[in-house]
Amino acid sequence: MIGTFLTDRGKVRTHNEDAGGIFYNESNQLLAIIADGMGGHQAGDVASQMAINAMKERWEETKRFSSPEEVETWLKKHISEVNALIYRHAQSNKECEGMGTTIVSVVCLDEHLIIAHIGDSRCYVFRQQTIEQVTEDHSLVNALVQSGQLSKDDAATHPRRNVVLRALGSEEKVNMDVQTVPLEKGIKVLLCSDGLTDKIRDEELSEIVSEDKPIEEIGRKLIDLANERGGEDNISLILLVDDAKVEAGEKVEKRSPSQ
Fold first, then answer.
1. Domain PPM-type phosphatase spans what residues (predicted)?
2. I need a surface site. Which of 76, 78, 176, 256 has the fewest CB within 10 A?
3. Residues with Cβ < 8 Å from 83, sequence gap 6 or more?
4. At what angle do helices 215-228 and 202-209 cross, to 10 degrees?
């Protein structure tokens, strides 16, 4: 697969605490990551960028993965190491005390997607104009939904909908969810921070992502819509498509820097 990364400060925040990127190892295997930092002025920036930089460096040093199991083991090991790195930095720098970041990452092999996440940044898979959220939010409102105390509709507007129960770097050890799903021909994959999903319903995501347009144009349309609806948060996304799209003439950006 191949894709594009877009990030936007939004309409209200004075700085962007999101970070992300698309990176390739020595065998041109793809790792895509979004991180949404938290923890006060500047500290969120530090946590998210530390996570992206550390994962990028580690990924680009790898040679080749032959199985999903190898990738799952790699992700668990290195995300745990990055968690410890951010946690130690926060402990030794008072201005960063309490900082952390969400993380959602996807590795693309020939026949599989391996997904790891912590927090409420999401991964969606689009197949034949149907949408599936393949990650489960580690958030307060999702826990209330799962326990039957809150409906999904109420969760979407709950005043504490942005409270996460797990974050990378906020504690010495962290639990992450790692899973493998089939990589089917023609699918699209969306990674995004909650600045996008707080403003755009899944049905709208499905409609826009399914459009037969270049993926950077689709990504910009999603960000513009989130900003039109208030843009109170930073907005970041990665959109990945099957390489066959490129052969059919679709223009795709492999890399896009953080803004």
1. 2-242
2. 76
3. 168, 169, 171, 173, 174
4. 150
CA distance 55 to 62: 11
CA separation for the pair 191, 56 (Å, rounded): 16
Task: Give me 197's structure tokens.
Answer: 């999903």
Contact 168, 102 (CB under 8 A): yes
> Does the domain made of 2-247 have the CATH classification 3.60.40.10?
yes
Six token digits for residue 10: 């939004």
Give residue 113's pLDDT.
98
Q: Given pLDDT bands bounded at 50, 70 and 90, which one contains residue 141?
A: confident
Q: What is the pTM of this model?
A: 0.90
Closest CA to 194 of 132, 129, 123, 125: 123
Residue 108 structure tokens: 């693309």
> Quick one: pLDDT band at residue 254, thresholds 50, 70, 90?
very low
Residue given tokens 């942005």 in the structure block: 162
Q: Is 54 exposed, middle or buried (0-12, 13-18, 19+ CB in 10 A)?
A: middle
Distance separating alpha carbons of residues 158 and 146, to the nearest angstrom: 15
Q: What is the pLDDT of residue 258?
A: 38
Looking at the chain, how many residues does it have? 259
Which tokens in the block code for residue 234? 């930073």
Give buried/exposed letters for 213-234 (b at 16+ CB in 10 A, else e): ebbbebbbebbebbbeeebbbb
Tokens linked to 216: 């950077």
Nearest Cα neighbor of 114 from 145, 79, 85 is: 79
